[in-house]
Amino acid sequence: MAGDGRLAACVAWPAFHRRCPRASVSEPHPTDPAAGLAERKTALRRELLAIRARLDPAWRAGASATIVATVAALPELAEARAALGYAATGSEVNIDALLRTWLVNHVALHLPFVAGDDLGVAPVGDLDADCVPGWGGVREPDPQRRRPVDPSVLDVALVPGVGFDGHGRRLGYGGGHFDRLLARLAPSTPVIGVAFATQVVEQLPVGEHDQSVRVLVTEQGPQRPAGSGWPRQRGDRER
Question: Backbone phi, then psi, for 76, in 5-degree steps?
Fold first, then answer.
């Protein structure tokens, strides 16, 4: 039901303290020496994915539209000429409407593609004609036509995630692909995370090379984390 998305989580930024329930996940204590980092991430990832999957599809579509409108109005996008987006899969926030708007407005849209253990990026001129199903069925630039570019040319990057926390930390799907890609951006390039509010927890278990976001946008609005490690250090890598 829609209530899962609106009531199960509370964004934990100091400026947004509200008396609302937190995401109902069984988070191990972040300093628990008995729990390995990978195990804690796996457990939290499993629970957050289950919560997101239970969101009503119609509510999810409406929330995605709200998120897209909020992202489009961010100052970080005002002067962007080359932008990284993503092709939503499953129950992720769908940003296709924003990607199409970028194309209409002549913003150079780039999408990621799987290249071994890493992600490459390539420009896309048409979401339908220039993309094919890639790893896991996720749309990516057609390998027969794409021309990869160095991620450092990007002016802004939008990224999905399984979870985020009040420090702007991001929990991905477990492969470290986006962490490695984000580490290759120019240090000044703003990274914007998009998620439903139910994916936000107070604190994520993180490793030293996990990448953070500068802004997190949910259906409740944009949040700018304190202590998000901004700007990033070039060369930071996931384990």
Answer: -65, -20
Q: What is the pTM of this model?
A: 0.81
Report how many helices (DSSP H) and strands (DSSP E) the chain contains, helices first. 5, 12
Q: Sign of the CA dihedral 173, 177, 180, 182?
A: negative
* Averaged pLDDT of the chain: 84
Measure the CA–CA gap between 191 and 144, rounded to whole angstroms. 29
Residue 239 within any structural domain of the chain: no
Cα Rg of the chain, angstroms: 17
DSSP state of 22: P
Name residue 66's amino acid: T
Angle in degrees, CA 63, 91, 8, rounded to 5: 60
CB 162 within 8 A of CB 49: yes
On whether residue 136 sits in a domain, the answer given is: yes
Give residue-wise pLDDT tens across range 73-91. Answer: 999 999 999 999 999 999 9
Label the pairing between strands 170-171 and 139-141. unpaired
Tokens read off for 148: 């990869």
CATH number at 191 reads 3.40.50.10420
